[in-house]
Amino acid sequence: MRHAMSIEPTPVSNARGAEEAHTPSPYLEITDLWKSYGDFVALRDISLTIAKGEFICFLGPSGCGKTTLLRAIAGLDLQTHGTILQGNRNISTLPASRRDYGIVFQSYALFPNLTIEQNIAFGLENTGRPKPEIASRVAELLAMVGLSAQGKKYPAQLSGGQQQRIALARAIAISPGLLLLDEPLSALDAKVRVHLRHEIKALQRKLGVTTIMVTHDQEEALAMADRIVVMNHGVIEQVGSPTEIYRHPRTLFVADFIGETNQFPGKVLPDGQIEIGHSAFCCATEGFAADDIVTAVVRPVDIIPHGADAHAVNAVDRPATPQNLIDAEVREMEFLGMFWRTRLTAPRLGERSLVADFSVNAVRRLSIETGAVIQVEIPRERLLLFPRGA
Amino acid sequence: MNIDLEAPYLPLVGKRLRQESSRDDRIKLGLMAVIGLYLVVALGAPLFIMLSKSLSTYRFDLAAFEFQVSDETGTNWGPVVAADALNQKLGVVTDEELVSSSDGRLAATKFFPDFSFRSPVHYRIRGTTADAAFLAGPTLEKGTEWRDYDSGTFRRVVLRPASSLGLENFKTYFSTPALARSIYNSVLMAAISTVVTISVAFALAYGLTRSCMPLKGLFRGILTIPILVPSLLPGIALVYLFGNQGVFKDWLMGYSIYGPIGIVIGSVFFTLPHAFLIILTALSIADARHYEAATSLKASKWRTFTTVTVPGARFGIVSAAFVVFTLVITDFGLPKVIGGQYSMLAVDIYKQVIGQQNFEMGAVVSVILLVPAILAFAVDRRMQKRQVALLSARAVPYAPKPNAGMDRICFGFACLVSLFILGMIAMCQIAALVKFWPYDLTLTTKNFAFDLMDGGGWAAYGNSIKLALLTALFGSLVVFAGAYMVEKTDGFRFGRSLFHFLAMMPMAVPGMVLGLAYIFFFNNPANPLNSIYGTMAILVICTVTHFYTVAHLTALTALKQMDPEFESVASSLKQPFHRLFFRVTVPVCLPAILNIAIYLFVNAMTTVSAVVFLYSTDTKLASVAVLNMDDAGDIAPAAAMGMMIFYTNVAAKLVHALIARGLLARTQAWR
Lengths: 390, 671
Description:
The complex is a heterodimer of chains A (390) and B (671). Helix content of chain A is 26%, strand content 31%. Chain A has 390 residues and is α+β, with helices and mostly antiparallel strands. Chain A folds into two domains: 169 residues, 3-Layer(aba) Sandwich (Rossmann fold), CATH 3.40.50.300; 125 residues, CATH 2.40.50.100. Chain B: It comes from Shinella kummerowiae.
């Protein structure tokens, strides 16, 4: 499989390479995992190694197999084929009750007729622990999630965010070796989500528990994960740190799913150039041969505005001579608070318009407004190429 | 980039993975097997035996027997003669007499007109086939060996019929006009009653949901009263109101209440609550926005009614129609009391079995009665599947606006129907309390002296309470555990859907059919469960099975509302499933469990159809006593016993409400 190359020399563009670098002691090893429902293949040849204490996010659109993979690890839906080792113990076919993990669901799944304390104590009772020990452990957990005053209440009396924290406390009460989070924040509203994101991450660091979280929210994954596993159609598209995934997507799918993209059909020319529309652009073309048909991708935030005359401003902004400068007319502007989203048309790019995000500052400084014709730069190292299917 | 082409294929080597079973899985599997076995024994097997009985025919095969007669010394034998040769010569047994039942007996002496039991002549008999059977006194003899009897013993030799499988019984049924007529009658009665009941129920439900009429709660209460009495009771009330000595006899303008008129009025009475509750539910889930849209589009009242109200409730209406149709066509108590000479299928079963001891013909009528019930059931299930949720989460509940004219009409109609229901109950109440309706109206308690009448006396009432309590207890246990297994276990998909199918089946099986099937199955000495025949146990099992489906669906609905991840959480916390079951599932579902218990209690008190075949002298029941006392002409005591059932059910409902409130306050604090 070929992948997009970039100009920067060092970063690892190979997922397995990244794993080796990150994982001195593997805790969870998944090998050749398949899951099929009749003719439908939900998971296809999944292999993944997770280190002790890592925070991993399974990220992908709905139906990509991320939850199926989580449930296979939990023993809730047995895989069709493949092995799972947890701490060198083969758990492939163990029932859920004999595996070692705590789980938190999107629906919280708190027992409605038990108080908060009873909910948290549910997994501690029946284990031969003395009552006072259980009580002190429950108090400790309640303090940990910051809900000490709520112990006697019932779940329905708490807000969604509080309920999810209780579900988390219940899951970690039994000190599991692995914490599984199945879209834990999806049912919450935006503010609470961001807040709880930090809390979960902090708690995970403090406890050092290996954690896998399933999410379809890329922002959540980027903010929380040590490493992200991007999945689509039952296969792993890429495994890597958030910056790796964002900066160096290995596939067009990853590029498009993480962040936003402008996509242009193009053809590779000799001498490190590609043809988009009817013009040539500088670009890293390693790994491609001349005349290869490609999709060129550039993110809206990576487009640099230069006002009417690029060379005048350029001297201040950037040391090097800008390449890939094009004239563009501003067609639409949308104020999104933190920045302006603009739709540009450029004769050199052909029919397709170009979406670019400009800072409020730049818009003011360069007097960018609807109808204005400005120069924009598509930085060479930010122009990514992906092979286009026949 | 095409992933599918590049990715490898699922390796086919090696065995398919199987999850190691946990202790929980094994316990669950065991429990499911136990409850599944219960349903097979209590439902599947009896019905199967009944079906095979309906296909068994019995006929005396005269060619299968041969006789030899000695002279007076008893040692010199005459020629061997076959029974059918003798019959051809003598014509003692007609062709019709050869058709028999499983109990059929034909005296061998019939073939010897000059037989005298004092004569010294000896007789020999043998079969020509190994299966030919005859009885010599109590001993069953079979086979082709000659057997020798003196004339004193030969007097007690009877031939047994040979059995064969075939549609013979059905042919006989359909060629007997008196019997086949019942099909037409039953369908006609059910159809008319359905139309009337649904119209009335819809009008009432409409009034309660779409008008601002007063006393809605009271009307709701009154309209559910008929559920609390046996279907015999409206029959008795009608006899008092419109019967030969009825006060309102003249209203019928010369027509008799005994027959179609009585059946329809009575059927409307006892099916009304069922139809009313279903349609009420369907109409309650109305989205106000649809009505606002209709108003803003300037639709007329009538157009709004036909395009918004009726389509919204159409699944409810269809469902209610099927329920009513099935109830009427399978009901036995009402036509028994008020039907007169008008024959109905369910009564035919009773007459064939109890009156004529013709079990095969009873089985035939049962199979015929199963057809419309199963048909109605199947169509209803299909409709239910097509029903989509009309009410989205964002629907705005509809609140009717006052409309003096409309409200008055609705109120008036509800009063009229309530009067009808209360009138029937009041009539029975009066009948139970006066000396001799309508001539001597002095109050008396003599009608409650059940011990002086046939039917079982106060012991029968005690038995009924015992049956109702046991059914409520045992039934809720089995039903809830069964529904839990269907809803909350993974794996054994086939077993679970088979189980669900069995649980849905009782809805389509009329009580008479179930009762008869139980006779066939449990009264067979070869059945190891034969010992429960004639005991309270068989009554409990039969009643639980008879009312299984509604209870099962109630439990299922409650369980479906539970988060499906509870089980996953519990197993991740290493807790056995029974701990979750008793600490969470049961407490959360307690309201539903109590509803199941009261449903089973009330129905066990009022049911007649299934148990009428199964009670013994020790286990007579109140509802059956009503039937038997009415049959014996003791109508006033029958009414009195019917009222006792009514009081008991009202009391049970009150106790249920109290328990529910008290218990729920403790266990449902979280709500």
